[in-house]
Design goal:
- The protein is an alpha+beta fold.
- The protein folds into three domains: 20-130, lambda repressor-like DNA-binding domains (434 Repressor (Amino-terminal Domain), Orthogonal Bundle); 142-305, Porin (Beta Barrel), CATH 2.40.160; 316-367.
- The protein is built from 15 helices and eight strands.
- It has helices spanning 2-32, 38-41, 46-63, 69-76, 80-87, 95-106, 110-115, 118-131, 162-165, 193-203, 211-219, 298-305, 316-329, 345-367, 376-397; strands at 142-149, 166-173, 183-191, 224-231, 235-242, 247-254, 266-274, 282-290.
- It has an eight-stranded antiparallel β-barrel, surrounded by four helices.
- Helix 4 crosses helix 5 and helix 13 packs antiparallel against helix 14.
- The longest helix has 31 residues, at 2-32.
- The radius of gyration is 32 Å and the shape is extended.
- The chain starts with a helix and ends with a helix.
């Protein structure tokens, strides 16, 4: 009984000590408009953090089959007595080297290790990894040329022809490092097709330069973007940025798990980026990626990048209304006070025309520009086009 009273007294003492701090946090939260509840913004319960730390360290030792605490201490670059104190709840792990090495060696972020159950995180990570496709590391690495449309003009003021609006760029996808899940990517945008063709053929020796040489070439380019390629079950994603948050590009392409090709030759995907104009705006469009420099016209490539109009039918109800309206205009058996039937033919034609415009515009608005997707058939058709062009190019060379 005495022990329980002592514990209750100590708990009350801790609460009273923290009360002024909580009140202060409440005032600061209101002053600076901090997000979240007071409990979330205040210092977290140290006992809960200690429990997480102990459980997570024990899980790491068990999951990675680390034979002894001494080995775990060596991996974390701390002394065995220090690790022992942490596991007993007598000491919190230091940021460096302990927590940093937990991230470096096991991949758990400092936040997850302190606040979450890393066993659950590891399980989720393992499930995702097991469902990911087996990727040939060499299949997607190499030098590519890509194509997209110029976005510097506002809508309605675009270039006169699709060929005039076509832009190109060069991309290098590095080989995947054994310890990494992603592949490094470098890219240069805003090149004319002619300049990109020349750069690909001459500077990059038609994609034959070594990875080291290619990296050196990109590093010497003033407008180079840097990023990563990573895979999901059905797609691969290329994320690029220039100057930190100054400019970012996200590309999404189909992953081809059923393809027997030794290397990825290219595909049709989507690209989201800020438009290039006086005032940058979010922009979405198709993008074509090719592991070659295609010796074809700008117009021919541009034809594959046009956002396709969906096929739709004008609804029957709207057409019935139009037919009935037109019939009423030209009926002869009408009452004398029916003003529509007495209108001149020119005005009747104008009314019908306006009615047709209304139906078409409403139907188009209801069926277009909601979503635009690259189907598997679109991607396969573009791959067949690349193969056909390459075969013709090689035949001409011979």
């Amino acid at each position: 009984m005495a022990t329980e009273k002592k514990a209750a007294a100590e708990e009350k003492k801790v609460y009273e000590e923290k009360k002024p701090y909580k009140e202060k946090i409440k005032e600061l939260k209101k002053k600076y408009k901090l997000l979240g509840k007071l409990e979330e913004q205040a210092v977290a319960d140290e006992q809960k953090i200690q429990k997480n730390v102990i459980n997570n360290l024990r899980y790491i030792q068990r999951a990675y089959e680390i034979e002894s605490q001494n080995d775990l201490a060596d991996i974390l670059d701390i002394s065995p007595p220090q690790l022992s104190r942490i596991l007993k709840g007598e000491q919190m792990p230091s940021l460096s080297p302990c927590l940093i090495n937990i991230y470096r060696q096991f991949g758990f972020t400092i936040h997850d290790f302190i606040f979450n159950d890393v066993e659950l995180i590891d399980w989720r990570r393992r499930v995702i990894k097991e469902n990911l496709p087996v990727v040939n590391d060499m299949k997607y690495s190499g030098i590519y040329q890509f194509y997209y449309f110029d976005t510097s003009e506002n809508r309605g003021r675009e270039k006169y022809t699709h060929g005039d609006a076509l832009m190109s760029g060069i991309m290098f996808i590095d080989e995947k490092k054994p310890e990494a899940d992603k592949q490094d990517v470098m890219a240069v945008f805003n090149m004319s097709k002619e300049r990109a063709d020349s750069f690909y053929e001459n500077t990059l020796k038609a994609g034959k330069v070594t990875a080291t040489t290619c990296k050196d070439i990109f590093k010497n380019l003033s407008g180079a973007y840097y990023g990563e390629l990573e895979f999901s079950v059905k797609h691969f994603f290329i994320s690029l940025n220039f100057g930190g948050l100054k400019d970012r590009v996200q590309m999404i392409f189909h992953f081809c798990p059923d393809s027997n090709e030794r290397e990825y030759i290219g595909g049709l995907g989507t690209m989201l980026s800020p438009s290039k104009s006086r005032i940058s705006k979010p922009c979405f469009q198709y993008v074509a990626l090719v592991k070659a420099s295609l010796d074809v016209s700008e117009e021919e490539i541009a034809a594959h990048l046009l956002l396709r109009y969906p096929q739709f039918e004008v609804c029957n109800m709207a057409m019935d209304d139009l037919v009935n309206f037109t019939a009423d205009l030209y009926r002869t058996d009408v009452e004398a006070n029916d003003r529509l039937s007495k209108l001149p033919d020119v005005q009747k034609k104008t009314l019908v025309k306006n009615y047709v415009d209304k139906i078409v515009n409403e139907t188009v608005e209801n069926n277009m520009l909601r979503t635009v997707a690259v189907s598997g058939e679109d991607d396969e058709a573009f791959c067949r086009y690349i193969k056909r062009v390459n075969v013709n190019m090689h035949a001409e060379v011979k």
